[in-house]
Amino acid sequence: MPKIAAGVLLLAGIGLFTQAVLAVDERGVELGGPTLAPLIVTGLWVAVAAAYALQAFRAEISQITEGVRWWTPLLLLGILIGYACVLKYTVVGYVLATAAFYFGAARLLGKGRERITRDAIVAIGLSVGIYLVFTRLLGIGLPSGVLPL
Amino acid sequence: MNELLHGFADVLSAQNLLYAAIGVTIGTLVGVLPGIGPALTIALLLPVALKLDDPTGTLIMFAGIYAGAMYGGSTTSILLNTPGESASVATSIEGYQMALRGRARAALATAAIGSFVAGTISTILLTFIAGPVAKLAVSFRATDYFALAVLAMVAVTAMVGGSLIRGLMSLTFGLFLGLVGIDSLTGRARFTFGIPSLLDGVDIVIVIVGLFAIGETLYIASRMRDLPAEVAPLEPVRKGSFAWLSRSDWGRSWRPWLRGTALGFPFGALPSGGAEIPTFLSYTYEKRRSKNKEEFGKGAIEGVAGPEAANNASFSGVLVPLLTLGIPTSATAAVMLAAFNYFDVAAGPQLFEKSPALVWALIASLYIGNLMLLALNLPMIRVWVKVLQIPRPVLYAGILVFATLGVYAVSGNIIDVMIAYAIGLVAMFMRHLQFPIAPVILGVILGPMMETQFRRALLLADNDLTVFVRRPLTLILLLLAVAMIGLPHLPRLFARKRLAFGEED
Q1: A23 touches chain B (CB under 8 A)
Q2: Domains contained in chain A, number
Q3: Which domain holds residue A31?
Q4: Which of B188, B394, B418 lies nearest to residue A106, judging by beta carbons?
Q5: A3 interfacial to chain B (CB closer than 8 Å)
Q6: DSSP conformational letter for B197
Q7: Which residues of chain B lie closer than 8 angstroms to A77, CB-CB?
Q8: What would the pLDDT profile of B265-280 be if each residue is shown by its tens digit?
């Protein structure tokens, strides 16, 4: 794990540093100009990432990745992104999208088949509750969608 | 003093008292939820509070939310052994052991009363120190601010967490996020990758929601099985005790409360990363000099009383640089600063000159929030235990809904939501790889501040770099920053830290 992270960090750092260098125009780097800080920050990034990589490859960093299930957070992130896209790009509306997302996320985080009714009830109650409080009480608009609310 | 009385007069209106009460209740309610600390509580409630349209009322509510969130955090640490932030880790060591041995009420009471004592004393200290410091700060120049920002950043990075390299990496990530957007002096776009909505930069609320809410939930999702799910039961109230503490509990608690306060306030006021260091120093100190040494690790009340007091006192300390200089030294302070910015209230020496009513109302509301906390929380402990028993899937799915809503309500932009998710993914890996989170936030807030002051100073000095070493104050601050980098390498401090965390506990 730390080795992969070190690699990613180092690559990202080099990429960003290159960006910072390319942003310097013909006037060069001015002390009070806008290109100095990006160079310093991304330069620091590369240096620190290199130091971290050194530690990682010398195996000086302890690994605590036993018993970690990577699929759950990645799936969760997937339905999060889906949820945001449905909210933005479709006419489903806040209440339905949120209820569906909540139900999915709660099922994913739960241990098994138990408590389907609980998750469903909370999903509907929470999404309707938030919608009413935000649009009626706080005056923050949320997409109403296909439901006649 | 007169100004403080005016502050009290402002706060003591029925409406503001209501705000304070709502703040304390919501703060505790959200703070009790496992894994949610004060910084995230404030960030999530920011969009709601912004709708109030009344800066004084909102800040009063924030003070209440903060106090409540801190107290809620200690409840979670004691009853569930899941500290929401590093400052409550020390409390959870002895607190959870006490709860397991049927002394949960005593642990909760010593934490609450200790918080009240520490909060009140340190707010009094704040009252007397803030004014003079602000007067002093008026004479600060751009170079001093630059040096202060450097010092604050370096200090927090060096002090928080175990590894300097990982701390620096977190800080650099934050500094980078702070760079994204249009350069305020020249109007040039930096690191916007051609995405229009990045021109405004990455909002601090998005960063905080991503780092704490999304990151924490994803992290929890990846290791759901390892978490303790059992809430320690509350024992029946014992006879002959006052406020759940027996005579000997009072006798063993009051000195640690005072010592914790004495440690917490100065550490908070100095740029040293807020409450993490003083809470552990307090824990170590109480452990070393306690007459009941053998009880440590099995639920010693001193080990709860001291760190909790230190934790609360350090917050009033953190307010000193935040209010007088506009420099945040902890994650929560950074969120408070963001809240100030939303109201166009500029924290710093001008704050005391331009809006003294606001400052003193805030300070007055800290006193009231503390009092309200004590009055509300111990009697309502059964409610908080119920909140703690909310099943994890229900809770964390709900947090994701609220996090998305929080970002969406602030910006109404889907790219911002995606950025929050991306930051959350990064934060999950950071937690797995033990990178500290706080330096990221300080980087985002202090980075742009530092750059602006640096360039302003150079502009005034005709690009003469020696301006940063000519002024004694600037030079001293910068040298202190250099010294801070070396500090964690002092073997002694390391040994101490290990003692606090070590296997013997």
Answers
A1: yes
A2: 2
A3: 2-64
A4: B394
A5: no
A6: G
A7: 218, 421, 424-425
A8: 988 887 766 677 788 8
